[in-house]
Specification:
Layout: E1 2-4, E2 9-11, E3 38-43, H1 49-63, E4 68-73, E5 76-78, E6 81-86, H2 89-96, E7 101-105
Length: 108
C-alpha cells in the first residue's frame, strides 16, 4: 500500500492473486433419509477422530439399521517427516465413488 501525504489518497491492492477459473457449483442437496444409504466415515490421525466417528456410526445404525458405513483415513503422518501430512488421492477417489454421504472428524 502506498500513500500520498499531499492529497490523503491510498492505493489499495487486492490480496487475491490469480482467480480460479473453475466455475462454482452449489452443494449437493441433503438426503431425505439415510435408510439403505452408504455413509463414508472419514477421519484423520488425531487420537479422538476415530472414537468420535465410532459413536456416530453406532447412532446412525440405531436410527437407520439398513445404512452401511465405510471408513477412510484421510490424513496420515509421513513416517520420514512426521510434520508432513499426505492423502492417498487415488484411494480417496475410489473410496468415495459408491457413497451417498460422508461424515468427517478431526479429533481435536
Amino acid at each position: 500500500m502506498s500513500t500520498s501525504k499531499s492529497n490523503g489518497q491510498y492505493e489499495v491492492l487486492s490480496p487475491w492473486s490469480e482467480v480460479d477459473t473453475v466455475p462454482l457449483r452449489g452443494i449437493t442437496p441433503r438426503l431425505t433419509t439415510l435408510t439403505g444409504k452408504k455413509i463414508g466415515l472419514a477421519f484423520n490421525f488425531k487420537t479422538a477422530a476415530r472414537p468420535v466417528l465410532s459413536v456416530v456410526e453406532r447412532k446412525l445404525k440405531e436410527r437407520f439399521p439398513t445404512c452401511e458405513t465405510s471408513w477412510f483415513n484421510i490424513l496420515s503422518r509421513n513416517e520420514k517427516s512426521p510434520s508432513e501430512m499426505k492423502i492417498g488421492e487415488a484411494e480417496f477417489a475410489e473410496w468415495i465413488k459408491g457413497l451417498d454421504a460422508v461424515v468427517t472428524a478431526v479429533g481435536d
